[in-house]
Amino acid sequence: MKKNKLFIAIVVALVLGIIAGGIVHLQYPDSAEAFSKSIKLLGTIFIRLVQMIIAPLVFTTLVVGIAKMSDIKLIGRVGTKAMAWFIIASLVSLFIGLILVNWLEPGHVTKLPIQDAASAEEILKSSKGFSLEDFVKHVIPKSLFEAFATNEVLQIVVFSIMFGVALANMGEEYAKPVVKAFDICAHAILKMVGYIMWVAPLGVFGSIAAVVATNGFEIFKVYAIYLRDFFFALGILWLVLCVVGYMILGNRLFELLRRIKEPLLIAFSTTSSEAVFPKLVEELERFGCNSRIVSFILPLGYSFNLDGSMMYMTFASIFIAQIYGIEMTVTQQITMLLVLMLTSKGIAGVPRASLVIIVATCSMFGIPPEGIALILPIDHFCDMGRSMTNVLGNALATSAVSKWEGQLSKVDGDSLL
């Protein structure tokens, strides 16, 4: 009952946000910027509350999950299956974006003026640091506390895996008190999730009202072709993911989709797949996924398995090339795809991460990187779709590995905590 109330509250907030933003944009255009800046704080409050618990939740759940496995062979087996899924899913997502943007050719029929040059310049500056050296720095922490302070999920994952394996190898007598303490912490943090999620409707209202007040409804007309083609491509990706999910989970796929509808809606509304991480952990465990596998795979997925973001990067990069009339050979496009595959890992916590990688990749292939300004005004709407897809992809990956390991139980989740 509580879940349904929250879901309804989020939908109502979404509708009210569109209405409020539209009224301000149409009736009080001079106040739109000030209104947007103020109302956006509601979304900022929600996102920061969630970000506050991301690092401790990832650390405690991952350490407990690995330490409780105790069997290092099991850790290796689960990790191998997860990484195999992540790599294949990423390649499939990139290829779908590449094929559809070449088939639909949105850039050949859309002529848009370059806008928001200042924002584009900021992204250009931030993209300069992304290199192999920067990737290594994102993977290996020099300080656990720094990783916690900056919410570097991948660095926390690396430390947590090493710490969890060390505990598993110490023997139950030594490790049990530490594992028990972390287990209690993890449950306490999950309890906090329930409190924070009731702030979600306010966050949704603020985020939607701000973007509509600033850009109005015209933005949907200006970029109609690009949005139409991108969401069509997302639909194809969803179809592929759901077909694969059905082949593995059978009819339970529909139960999974029903359970994660709330995280999907929040991700869509707030453009943050990170914001639903704690809730997704809870719903996957209620679905019947083994808690140890959830706490092991999901944090990895948030760094390595962002299907929506992967597809968007090829789609947007080729779109910019089309806008400028740059013809790329099949070989160049395949090379771009592989570059995106490598450079996109480990940057999940970076603001506008997809845009940063697109700029860096465009520069490598002679595509004017300032073209990012073309898609900046509608990136918020595209981010809605790709964030939602990232959540679906990680939910399917976790459920699939649980099924392969024979650890997907059929439970009455509503009777749990």
**Largest sheet at a glance?**
none
Mean of all residue-level pLDDT scores: 78
Task: Look at the structure and name the CATH superfamily.
Answer: Sodium:dicarboxylate symporter
Helix content: over 70%
The tally of beta strands, per DSSP, is 0
Poorly predicted runs of 5 or more residues: 112-120, 126-130, 413-417
Oligomer classification: single chain
Which tags fit this structure?
417 residues; mainly alpha; Proton glutamate symport protein; 80% helix; globular; disordered C terminus
Task: Please provide a written account of the structure.
With 417 residues, this protein is an all-alpha fold. It has a single domain (2-216, 223-407), classed as Proton glutamate symport protein (Orthogonal Bundle). It has 21 helices and no strands. Helix 3 packs antiparallel against helix 18 (330-343), helix 12 (224-249) runs parallel beside helix 21 (379-404) and helix 14 (261-270) runs antiparallel to helix 21 (379-404). Mean pLDDT is 78; it is low at 112-120, 126-130 and 413-417.
